[in-house]
């Protein structure tokens, strides 16, 4: 697990706000989100590296890669994932 | 129980469990050969597949569980799988051994289910699939380390060339009856604020780090390249539309030849039977009731086979997930899931396969909303009706001198259906099926060459359900309809009331079959509903055809042919039927049909639930008579209302 403390060259954001092509590390998954359990079962968890690949033609859903496979999720689900990204 | 190698040993029950896309179906096919049984778990539409397998000399009943990501039951499939594993489904004995099918190229996520399986303390054997792809990607795995760390046997298998299948059998036979130990590292709680899911993944990360060497460079190279085009913001949509056009083209034109052959086949079969049987009620029943009725459904089989062939290929290759990805935003605007897109598109061919295809939608409310609107898509059975109406009343007319009016009307009918579907979905998702939008979290599996066997098996299994279900229902309805139009027999002593001479004053000669119909129960029903359909501009004869077409829409054409005494061998392009429609007069001598009547009838056909086979399938898929009746009710009410507005509105505007 990598250190999730908010180092100065890193910032905390929602996964839904990360631009395409970036690789970020998951900090937490908000369990209040309806999709939270499924997201965690699909492998989202503290320290997991997630790459945002692209968004669909109308801006939603988005495609990400984690744990060596690709997953599509809506931005409303991606909102539940807090991530740490390098500036 | 007596078959199998080792005499006296108990027949084992072995369940195959694994993530979707892990190669479970291919492995199941390889193990059980062609000796498979497909049924449904009672009360739900989850398929129960079982087969026979001989594992290390032991006779095994192999149960293929639905694909699942987790045992924590969020979809019906997952609930069923969990219940089977716990021995809580009466149809299946609790499995003696669980074979966990694990995709080697997607090890971490696949192992999540395995950790849950290990925690059930049932004997487990891991079948590592996709090994050839794994090696091609230059990944490396130490099976020994995996074995030791997971505490259960791991066997590499290749379902295509049979590699490892014997080893798998031996491992299963050995595992039966054993009591597995849960690895201590899996039970380690870890820091506070953690939960069971994180705990399992932490353990998995440790296992994978020890046992596997990934080559991330190569892993996604091919799929990523393909996706640069196929899920491209612009070209992705263009290609999607092109694929749909190809599917439609296939369904509407390639299927024509076999459909004509089937049609001709049933006609000659009818003639042959008619010639072979003594004239009378039995011959009439067999030819006009059974052969004509069942034939009328079976001629759609080529379209259905083709549609399912395409769906299976698109599913097995991984493209279906891309289509859902591309369109989810559009679909979610009306409250539907991206996965609803394909069932709806399929429904343009026939609502039955479309409704059956909704099984891929996990959320019940999303699925029901999709089922409820699928029949609004103009299916191929409506085409003969549109074609007849347009040929009779709009042929050779052009808008602006070049746009064929017929084509515009045809397009308008398709658009009306789509519009109705959108509006109804919008309202259903805000009322009866109201719920927060379910999560859209969908794996995008790597592209793979479709497995021919899986594709064809899929195609035939689904088509068979259509033949069996729709066939039995349509058979019953055909006989009933035939009887309604056949009885009471033309008997001087039994004079039928009112209808008899109502329109016999017409100058057209009335032949026996027309007279018979007029006096039949169907004719009486036609008269009985005349007051109701009069505001739509329909007379009792159209009423009879409407009643008949509630069994199946295309029946309208043949029924109108009988009613207008032009014989039942007419097709929608038949000049005699068209002339008869144009010339038909009421008792007062006014024309029955006008272009406005034709449009009204088409509008009714776009919206009404007139297909017994669909009703039967909806009942089966929703497992609910209330939803089925609700659908028939609201669609018919909507159809009546829209037809009423069309006709009265049209008259007010001076058409007619």
Query: Average pLDDT across residues of chain A?
Result: 89
Helical content band of chain B: 55-70%
- The radius of gyration computed from the alpha-carbon positions of chain B, rounded to a whole number of angstroms, is 30 Å
Relative strand content of chain B: 5-15%
Unreliable stretches covering 5 or more consecutive residues of chain A: none
Count of alpha and pi helical runs of chain A:
2
- Helix share of residues of chain A? 10-25%
Structural class, from helix and strand content of chain A? mainly beta
Record field, number of beta strands of chain A: 6
- Which chains share the greatest interface? A-B, 33 and 47 residues
Assembly state of the chains shown? heterodimer
Number of strands of chain B: 12
Give structural notes.
- The complex is a heterodimer of chains A (87) and B (656).
- Chain A has helices at residues 36-41, 75-78; strands at residues 10-14, 23-29, 49-55, 62-66, 69-73, 81-86.
- The longest helix of chain A has 6 residues, at 36-41.
- Chain A has a six-stranded antiparallel sheet with strand order 1-6-2-3-4-5.
- Chain A is mainly β and 87 residues long.
- Chain A has two helices and six strands.
- Chain A is 11% helix and 40% strand.
- Chain B contains 29 helices and twelve strands.
- The model of chain B is unreliable at 1-8 and 492-510 (pLDDT under 50).
- In chain B, 57% of the residues lie in helices and 9% in strands.
- At the A-B interface, helix 1 and strand 5 of A face helix 3, helix 8, helix 10, helix 15 and strand 12 of B.
- Strand 5 of chain A pairs antiparallel with strand 12 of chain B, so a sheet runs across the interface.
């Amino acid at each position: 697990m990598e250190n999730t403390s908010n180092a100065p060259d890193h910032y905390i954001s929602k996964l839904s706000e990360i631009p395409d092509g970036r690789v970020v590390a998951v900090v937490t998954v908000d369990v209040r989100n309806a999709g939270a359990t499924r997201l965690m079962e699909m492998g989202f968890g503290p320290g997991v590296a997630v790459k945002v690949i692209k968004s669909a033609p109308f801006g939603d859903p988005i495609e990400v890669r984690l744990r060596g496979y690709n997953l599509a999720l809506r931005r409303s689900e991606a909102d539940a994932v807090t991530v740490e990204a390098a500036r | 129980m007596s078959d199998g190698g080792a005499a006296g040993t108990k027949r084992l029950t072995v369940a195959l469990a694994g993530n979707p896309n892990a190669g479970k179906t291919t492995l199941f096919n390889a193990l059980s050969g062609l000796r498979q049984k497909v049924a449904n778990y009672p009360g739900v539409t989850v398929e129960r597949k079982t087969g026979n397998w001989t594992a290390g000399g032991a006779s095994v009943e192999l149960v293929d569980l639905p694909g699942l990501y987790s045992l924590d039951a969020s979809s019906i499939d997952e609930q069923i799988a969990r219940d089977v594993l716990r021995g809580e489904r009466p149809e299946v004995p609790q499995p003696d051994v669980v074979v966990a099918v694990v995709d080697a190229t997607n090890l971490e996520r696949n192992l999540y289910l395995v950790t849950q399986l290990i925690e059930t303390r049932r004997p487990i054997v891991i079948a590592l699939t996709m090994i050839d792809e794994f090696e091609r990607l230059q990944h490396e795995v130490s099976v020994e380390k995996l074995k030791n760390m997971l505490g259960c046997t791991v066997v590499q298998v290749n379902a295509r060339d049979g590699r490892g299948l014997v080893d798998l059998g031996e491992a299963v036979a050995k595992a039966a009856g054993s009591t597995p130990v849960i690895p201590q590292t899996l039970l380690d709680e870890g820091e506070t604020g953690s939960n069971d899911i994180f705990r399992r993944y932490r353990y998995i990360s440790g296992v994978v780090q020890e046992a596997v060497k990934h080559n991330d460079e190569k892993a996604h190279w091919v799929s990523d390249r393909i996706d640069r085009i196929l899920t491209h913001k612009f070209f992705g949509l263009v290609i999607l539309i092109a694929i749909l056009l190809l599917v439609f083209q296939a369904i509407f034109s390639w299927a024509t030849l076999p459909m004509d052959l089937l049609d001709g086949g049933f006609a000659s079969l009818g003639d042959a039977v008619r010639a072979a049987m003594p004239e009378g009620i039995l011959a009439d029943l067999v030819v006009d009731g059974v052969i004509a009725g069942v034939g009328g459904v079976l001629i759609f089989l080529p379209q259905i086979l083709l549609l399912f062939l395409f769906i299976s290929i698109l599913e097995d290759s991984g493209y279906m997930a891309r289509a859902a990805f591309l369109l989810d935003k559009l679909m979610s605007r009306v409250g539907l899931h991206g996965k609803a897109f394909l069932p709806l598109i399929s429904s343009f061919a026939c609502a039955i396969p479309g409704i059956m295809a909704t099984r891929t939608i996990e959320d019940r409310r999303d699925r029901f909303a999709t089922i409820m609107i699928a029949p609004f898509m103009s299916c191929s059975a409506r085409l003969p009706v549109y074609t007849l109406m347009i040929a009779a009343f709009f042929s050779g007319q052009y808008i602006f001198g070049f746009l064929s009016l017929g084509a515009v009307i045809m397009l308008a009918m398709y658009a009306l259906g789509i519009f109705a579907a959108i509006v109804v979905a919008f309202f259903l998702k805000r009322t009866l099926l109201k719920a927060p939008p379910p999560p859209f979290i969908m794996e995008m599996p790597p592209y793979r060459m479709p497995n021919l066997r899986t594709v064809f098996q899929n195609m035939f299994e689904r088509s068979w359900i259509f033949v069996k279900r729709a066939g039995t229902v349509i058979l019953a309805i055909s006989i009933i309809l035939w009887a309604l139009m056949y009885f009471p027999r033309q008997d001087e002593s039994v004079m039928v009331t009112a209808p008899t001479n109502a329109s016999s004053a017409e100058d057209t000669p009335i032949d026996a079959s027309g007279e018979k119909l007029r006096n039949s129960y169907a004719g009486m029903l036609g008269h009985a509903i005349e007051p109701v359909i009069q505001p739509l501009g329909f007379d009792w004869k159209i009423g009879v055809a409407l009643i008949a077409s509630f069994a199946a829409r295309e029946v309208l054409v043949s029924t109108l042919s009988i009613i207008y005494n032009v014989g039942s061998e007419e097709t929608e392009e038949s000049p005699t039927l068209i002339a008869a429609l144009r010339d038909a007069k009421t008792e007062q001598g006014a024309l029955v049909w006008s272009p406005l009547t034709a449009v009204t009838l088409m509008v009714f056909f776009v919206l009404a639930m007139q297909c017994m086979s669909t009703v039967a399938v909806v009942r089966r898929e929703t497992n609910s008579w209330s939803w089925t009746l609700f659908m028939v009710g609201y669609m018919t009410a909507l159809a009546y209302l829209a037809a009423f507005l069309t006709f009265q509105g049209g008259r007010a505007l001076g058409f007619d």
